[in-house]
Write a structure and sequence with these properties.
Helices cover 32% and strands 25% of the residues. It is an alpha+beta fold. It folds into 2 domains: 47-126 and 309-355, no CATH class; 132-307, Rossmann fold, CATH 3.40.50. It has a 6-stranded mixed beta sheet, sandwiched between helices. Strands 6-5-13-2-15 form a 5-stranded antiparallel beta sheet. It has a 4-stranded antiparallel beta sheet with strand order 4-3-14-16. Helix 5 (151-164) runs antiparallel to helix 6. The radius of gyration is 20 Å and the shape is globular.
């Protein structure tokens, strides 16, 4: 029996409207405007395209030790039960290796894409090895009134994590209470991130899911591997979006979410369950620290995890499903029967609205192909 990843399977059909409403509410809160776009006034189209799906995959034995040295032939990927062919493969910090002609595969994906409505075509961006090699990390730090105790210890643990995270090409430092504060935008400059850590101050109520959603939106604009590391000291008491919808956005954008929380969150069983399910669904992990030493150990564990992930990708084969698509990764080989896999469990196709008379149309995908806004 091959090892496979389990899934967090909420009732998605009943929550689709809730997801759209929650996203709209948060965007309205931060933008303060509900102005109709000029593209809608000119007449727009909706088009859905999947170019490349990228997965961060952790493989461990029964004792939780990482299994290294695996090869592409050791992995089998299924999307909605359809077997997929690996396009790229990398282990740990090693370079991504192309297993197919990426340019031809991109063009083929374009020709077989799922169209909600026909529209002007654009050749999708070719995915290069360098973009798949990169890792960007977003740190989201709870500075709500839950953090009055142990604030400095948490800052120290985050600072140590930033200094030691050699696997990340760029790091961003965000903090949150009721609102999100981008104290250090994504940068390769570790000193700028460390200044951001030290400049954080305790605030008021906690809106974890609102601010995590905004952090995920920022992270989704970048190519390559993406992770969000959350330090939360307590439950959410101010958000307007449910955690299930935030988790679905992370899965669809291919972002692994790691959460470190204190024992304060354990006082509320609902928060504990949500943290564990959300991280598991995205391929990340949840930690509950009893003291500052546990916090440092949790950050060290995340750093170790990121250094041992397999990065694999594929171009989806023809699939009539235009909604949520489940992903299952299995291991091939008798010696791997008892191994465990951790990765995201699926994604939802993202529709893009644009004008038919626009010369350059944006092509969305399960793995975003937008340029790096930090450049």
């Amino acid at each position: 029996m091959n090892a496979h990843v389990g899934s967090w399977a909420p009732n998605r059909s009943k929550r689709m409207a809730t997801l759209a409403l929650g996203l709209a509410l948060v965007l309205i809160l931060i933008s303060g405007s509900g102005t109709r776009s000029s593209a809608q006034e000119r007449g727009s189209h909706i088009r859905v395209v999947v170019n490349l799906v990228q997965l961060n995959v952790a493989v461990t034995d029964k004792n939780g030790n990482y299994i290294t040295g695996l090869h592409p032939e050791n992995f089998a990927i299924y999307e909605d039960g359809i077997p997929e062919k690996l396009a790229t493969f990398a282990e740990g910090n090693g370079p991504a290796r192309a297993l197919v002609d990426l340019a031809q595969a991109d063009a083929k994906a374009e020709n077989t894409a799922d169209h909600v409505e026909a529209a002007a075509l654009q050749q999708p961006t070719t995915v290069t090895g360098s973009s798949l090699d990169s890792l960007v990390a977003f740190i989201l730090f709870d500075t709500s009134n839950y953090m009055y105790r142990g604030f400095v210890f948490a800052q120290d643990a985050i600072a140590d994590f930033v200094r030691s995270l050699d696997t990340a090409d760029k790091i961003a430092m965000y903090s949150y209470s009721r609102d999100l504060s981008r104290v250090a935008p994504l940068t390769p400059d570790r000193s700028a991130v460390l200044r951001g850590v030290r400049n954080t101050v305790a605030g008021d109520e906690a809106a974890l899911y609102n601010t995590l959603l905004l952090t995920l939106r920022d992270a989704s604009q970048y190519k390559g591997r993406k992770v969000v590391v959350v330090f939360s000291n307590g439950p959410d008491n101010s958000s307007v979006v449910p955690p299930e919808d935030v988790a679905e956005l992370a899965q669809s954008a291919g972002i692994s979410v790691y959460m470190i929380s204190t024992q304060q969150a354990k006082l509320e069983p609902v928060s504990t369950a949500v943290f564990e399910r959300m991280t598991a669904a995205t391929g990340g992990k949840a930690y509950f620290a009893k003291n500052w030493r546990d916090e440092k150990r949790a950050f060290a564990s995340i750093r170790d995890d990121l250094a041992h992930l397999y990065s694999i990708s594929y171009y989806p084969r023809a699939n009539p499903n235009r909604g949520w698509r489940s992903i299952q990764v299995r291991l091939v080989g008798d010696e791997l029967r008892k191994a465990h896999i951790r990765t995201r469990t699926g994604y939802r196709l993202q529709a893009n609205r644009f004008s038919s008379d626009t010369a350059t149309a944006v092509v969305p995908s399960a793995e975003p192909t937008a340029g790096d806004p930090g450049k």
